[in-house]
Amino acid sequence: MKLPPGPKTPSWLLNLQFETDPFGYMDSISQSYGDIVTIILGSTPIVYVSNPLGIKEIFTNTKEITARGELNQDFAFLTGNQGILQLDGLCHKHRRKLLMQAFHGDRMQACGRRICELTEKIMSSLAFAKHFVAYPTIEDITLRVGIEVVMGLREGERYEKIKYLFAEIIKYQQSILYQLMMKLPFLPKGLDRWSPRRYLLHLREELFSLLETEVQERRQQADSSRTDMLNDLIFARDEAGEALSDEEIRDLLLSPIFAAQDASATAIAWALYWIHRLPVVKEKLLQELDNLGEHPDPMHIVALPYLSAVCNEALRIYPTQLFAFPRLVESPVEIMGYELSPGTVLIGNIYRTHQREDLYPQPQQFQPERFLKKQFSPYEFLPFGGGTRVCIGGSFALFEMKLVLATILSNYQLTLVDKRPEKPKFGGLISYPASGVKMFMHGRRQHQGQSKPLVAGLL
Fold first, then answer.
1. Does pTM top 0.85 for this prediction?
2. Which end of the chain is more exposed for a tag (fewer CB within 10 A), N or C?
3. How far is CA 368 from CA 313, 380, 381, in A?
C-alpha cells in the first residue's frame, strides 16, 4: 500500500489545530501536502481528497469503495438509527426515492409561494430602525419551512413544541458552553450524569416522543390527498411490500428537518452578508429582481441567472458542508496513483476543492460572475456532497435560498452593522457565521414610488 503524504503530528494535536482554526488548518495542510492528504487516526488511515478527478473516482466507484451507513453513526444520536444517513444498499436507495418525492412536481410551486409568505411574515415582525441578527431570524424561517414540507404542520401546540425542540438542539450544540464542555478531558463524553450530552438526551427523547405521536395519529387518520413527506412515508411500502414502522418513519423525518433548519439558514445568512458587503453585487441583484415586475411567480424567481450565481458563490466560498460523507475502501483500489488497502477511509474535502486556484481564480473573493462564465462539474462544485450520499434536499435548499433572499431584498432595506469581515465558525458539519451577521433594519424598500410586496396577498 502506498498512502498519500500527510503530517506525522499526533492526532490529538491535529484535532486541536483543526478546532482552533479549521480553515487555516486545511489551507496549511493543502499547501504542504497537496490535494490528496493522509491523516492517521489511531490505526485508520483517512485520506482527504480535494482534486476533482480524485473525487470523481471516489463518487463513481461503487465496487471497491462503499458509502457505508456505519461511517455516519456519530449522527445517529440525533437522527436515529434508521435515518437516511445510517442506511445502506437497496434500503438506502429505496428510502431516498421516497423522501425525494416531496421535492418534485406541482408541490414545488405551492411550496415556493409558502416560502415567500413565511419570509414576509417573519421579516415584517422585525422592528424598523433597529438592529437584528440575521442567522437566527433566517433559521426561524427555514425551520418553519422544513417542518411544513416534511410533516405538513403549520400551527398548534405540538407544532410549537417540535419547532422549539429542533431550535433548542441546534442552539445548545452551537453554544460556547457545550463546545467547551465537550473539549474538557475530565468530563465524560457519553451519557453519564455530568456529561454535556445529558441535556441533549433529554431534548432528543422529548422530540422523538412527539414525532412518534404525530406519526401514529397521522396513520390512524390517513389522508391520501396530503402532500407532505410524512404522508408519503405513511402510505409507502418497503422492498418487501410491508408498511414502514413508526420508528422508521420517525427517524427518516429527522435529517431533512435538521438540514432544512441549519444548513439552509447558514447558506442564506452567508449570502445576505456578501450581498450587503458588496454594493455592486446588491445593485445587480436588485435590478434583476425588479425586472420581473410586481408579484412575480416564484418559479420565475428561481430561474434568475444572477441570483443563481450569487447563491452558488455563497455556497462555494463557505460551503455549509465542509466535507462529503466518508467512504470506505472495501478492496484494493487506486486513487490518483496511490494504491489504497481495504479499511482506508476516503473523504472529499469540499472546502478545499472550492478554494482551488485553477478552478476559481482569487478563490477568497466573492465573485458570482464566475458561475455565469463557466459551468462547473459536480466534482468541481459540490456544496451538497455527491454520489450516493449527495444531500437529498440539496436542490430544495437552493430553491428555498433563492426565494428567501428575493423576498427580503425586494421588500426591505438592510445594511450590515459591523464593517469588519464576518468570520466562519465550524460546528459539526456546518460552517456558520460566527457573529450571526448583525444587520440594521431601515424599513421597507421603496421603489417606483410605492412598496412592492414580492407575492400578492402574502398575509
1. yes
2. C
3. 5, 16, 13
